[in-house]
DNA sequence: GTCTCATG
DNA sequence: CATGAGACA
């Protein structure tokens, strides 16, 4: 979900060119959910293969990778590992929302209310473990590297950005800031949404606070580890509290404050990863998309050709060793 | 070239 | 979400 900082966070509008020849770490779960909720048929239901399995996610991964490679951006997909204990409550909460949406969807369907069907279908976005596994398979077939984070994917992305191994974290929410990511990029898409860059230094400078303050603000507003935060406190009041050194008055009423803070300040991350692109396996990729998941051949052929073309271009630019 | 729209 | 087609210019 992400902390609801809203428009308190200053962002810079950039162009795709600014990301040229850069490597970015993708907060995979965040983006995968994005695909799941937005890639839908008219009635609001997700894309599915003939076995009824959801394929919206594969569609998104396939096209977004090609889009980025085409623009000389190297994507590294980072997946979640074992979530911190405190996240369980969040998961239960989300599950409840989805169950309720499912009920609403069913009743809208009974009424034949298409508008409501769309509305509620979009909330039923549960990412099956199998879909996540297949997403990794798809990345392998495309030659795109992915990393299994030990814990939160966002923390791993941020760590890599801090180290300078990647230029920025790609996510739609602002939580990477809390893990100290120097840059977060939003809206890498072919649609005409403005591409946004959020810089940690800019954020702290504009608000005139420290990273520690920002984390405290997040905890006041509410994070994945203390949903809802402190009652009655939003971004504005939170900023006022940390700026006027009044955090101490709230800490005692926040359950697990120290534990939550520690999750952001010292997350579990790994140094074991490779950022190298590999050669795609076009034949197997075809099978995965067309045979296994019923993508229309006519439709993906131009993109497959594009992928091959990009690979050949890269091969001619780099030595064989650095490519493989 | 740029935009909107329907489609998967 | 990305794509292609079609409108418009």
> Main β-sheet, in a few words?
7 strands, mixed
**Regions with little confidence, pLDDT below 50 for 5+ residues:** none
- What top-tier CATH class of the largest domain fits best? Alpha Beta
SSE pattern: EEHHEHHHEHEHEEHHHHHHHH
**CATH architectural arrangement of the largest domain:** 3-Layer(aba) Sandwich
Q: Report the radius of gyration as a whole number of Å.
A: 21 Å
Number of domains: 2
Distance between the termini: 37 Å
Number of helices: 15
How would you name the CATH homologous superfamily of the largest domain?
5'-nuclease
Structure characteristics:
single chain; 324 residues; alpha/beta; Rossmann fold; 15 helices; 7 strands; globular; DNA-binding; magnesium
Describe this entry's structure for a reader.
- The chain is α/β, with parallel strands linked by helices and 324 residues long.
- The protein has 15 helices and 7 strands.
- It folds into 2 domains: 207 residues, 3-Layer(aba) Sandwich (Rossmann fold), CATH 3.40.50.1010; 58 residues, Orthogonal Bundle (DNA polymerase, domain 1), CATH 1.10.150.20.
- It has a 7-stranded mixed β-sheet.
- α2 runs parallel beside α14 and α9 packs across α10.
- The relative contact order is 0.16.
- The chain binds a DNA duplex (8 and 9 nucleotides) through α1, α2 and α14.
């Amino acid at each position: 979900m992400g902390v609801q900082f809203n428009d308190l966070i200053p962002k810079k509008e950039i162009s795709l060119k600014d990301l040229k020849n850069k490597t970015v770490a993708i907060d995979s779960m965040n983006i995968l959910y994005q695909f799941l909720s937005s890639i839908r048929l008219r009635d609001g239901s997700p894309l599915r293969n003939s076995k009824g399995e959801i394929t919206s996610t594969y569609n998104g991964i396939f096209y977004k990778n090609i889009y980025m490679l085409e623009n000389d951006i190297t994507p590294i997909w980072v997946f979640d590992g074992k979530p911190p204990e405190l996240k369980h409550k969040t998961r239960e909460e989300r599950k409840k929302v989805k169950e309720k949406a499912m009920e609403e969807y069913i009743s809208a369907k009974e009424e034949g209310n298409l508008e409501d069907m769309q509305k509620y279908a979009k909330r039923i976005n549960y990412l099956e473990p199998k879909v996540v596994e297949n997403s990794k398979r798809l990345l392998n077939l495309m030659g795109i590297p992915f990393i299994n984070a030990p814990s939160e994917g966002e923390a791993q992305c941020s760590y890599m950005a801090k180290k300078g191994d990647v230029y920025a974290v790609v996510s739609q929410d602002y939580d990477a800031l809390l893990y100290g990511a120097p840059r977060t990029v939003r809206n890498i898409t072919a649609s005409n949404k403005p591409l946004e860059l959020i810089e940690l230094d800019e954020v702290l400078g504009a608000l005139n606070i420290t990273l520690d303050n920002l984390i405290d603000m997040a905890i006041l507003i509410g994070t994945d580890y203390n949903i809802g935060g402190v009652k009655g406190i939003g971004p504005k009041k939170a900023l006022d509290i940390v700026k006027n050194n009044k955090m101490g008055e709230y800490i005692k009423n926040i359950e697990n404050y120290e534990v939550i803070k520690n999750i952001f300040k010292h997350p579990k991350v790994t140094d074991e990863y490779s950022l190298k692109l590999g050669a795609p396996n076009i034949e197997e990729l075809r099978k995965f998309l067309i045979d296994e998941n019923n993508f229309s051949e006519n439709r993906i052929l131009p993109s497959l050709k594009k992928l091959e073309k990009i690979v050949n271009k890269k091969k001619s630019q780099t030595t064989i060793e650095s490519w493989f």
